[in-house]
Design a protein that fits this description.
The chain is α+β, with helices and mostly antiparallel strands. The protein has a single domain, classed as Gcn5-related N-acetyltransferase (GNAT) (Aminopeptidase, 3-Layer(aba) Sandwich). Helices cover 29% and strands 34% of the residues. It has 6 helices and 8 strands. A hairpin with a 3-residue loop joins strand 1 and strand 2. The radius of gyration is 16 Å and the shape is globular.
Length: 187
C-alpha cells in the first residue's frame, strides 16, 4: 500500500492529487493533438476532461494491485499544473509497477518531467517496495524514450507493430529498472 503525505516536494515541484480546481489546466493539456499524439486516447472535449478529472481525483493512493497513483505536477511557487505522473501497481506477487507521464508543451524541455518522474520511481521502489518498474512508449516518441533513458531505465524491447492505435500499427518500446539498480544510484 502507498498513501503518500501531500504535497510531495522536489527542488522545484510539488506533486499532489488532482483537485476540482484543476479542470482548466487538465483540459488545456488533453485538448492538444501534440500532447495525445502518441497516447492511446485522442484529444478530449472539456466534458471528457471533466470525466477524466473525476477519475484522477480518486487516484491519490495505491491500495491494491491494479491501482494507479496519478499526481498533478505543479510549480512549488505558483501551484500551476505542468503535467502529471503516474505509478501503477501491476503485480503484488512479482512486485512490479509501471511509470508514466504527460506534460503540457509549455512545460517540456525544462527538466520538470525528469524531476517528477524520479520522485515517482523513488515512491515505487522505496515506499511501495517494488522490485521492478517499467515504462512504455510509442517508438516514435523520442521525447519519452529519451526521458526513460535519462532516468536510468534500460531498453528491454522494441515490439514491432504490436498494437493498432488510432488507425495504424505502432511499435512500442519497453524500458525497465530494478530496485537494486535504483539503490545503486542508476538515476
Amino acid at each position: 500500500m502507498l498513501h503518500p503525505t501531500y504535497p510531495i516536494l522536489t527542488e522545484r515541484l510539488a506533486l499532489r492529487p488532482y483537485g476540482e480546481g484543476d479542470l482548466d489546466a487538465l483540459y488545456d493539456m488533453v485538448r492538444r493533438p501534440e500532447v495525445v499524439r502518441y497516447l492511446y486516447w485522442d484529444v478530449h472535449s472539456r466534458e471528457d476532461a471533466a470525466g477524466m478529472l473525476a477519475r484522477r481525483i480518486t487516484c491519490d493512493a495505491i491500495r491494491a494491485e491494479g491501482d494507479w497513483l496519478v499526481l498533478a505536477v505543479t510549480l512549488r511557487e505558483t501551484d500551476a499544473v505542468l503535467g502529471d505522473v503516474v505509478l501503477k501497481w501491476e503485480s503484488q506477487e512479482h512486485r512490479q509497477g509501471e511509470i508514466g507521464f504527460v506534460f503540457h508543451p509549455r512545460s517540456q524541455g525544462k527538466g520538470y518531467a525528469h524531476e517528477a518522474s524520479r520522485e515517482v520511481l523513488r515512491l515505487g521502489f522505496e515506499d511501495l517496495g517494488l522490485h521492478r518498474i517499467v515504462g512504455r512508449c510509442d517508438a516514435r516518441n523520442t521525447a519519452s524514450s529519451g526521458l526513460l533513458e535519462r532516468l536510468g531505465l534500460r531498453r528491454e524491447a522494441h515490439l514491432v507493430q504490436n498494437e493498432w492505435v488510432k488507425g495504424e500499427w505502432t511499435d512500442e518500446l519497453i524500458y525497465a529498472m530494478l530496485g537494486s539498480e535504483w539503490g545503486a544510484g542508476a538515476v
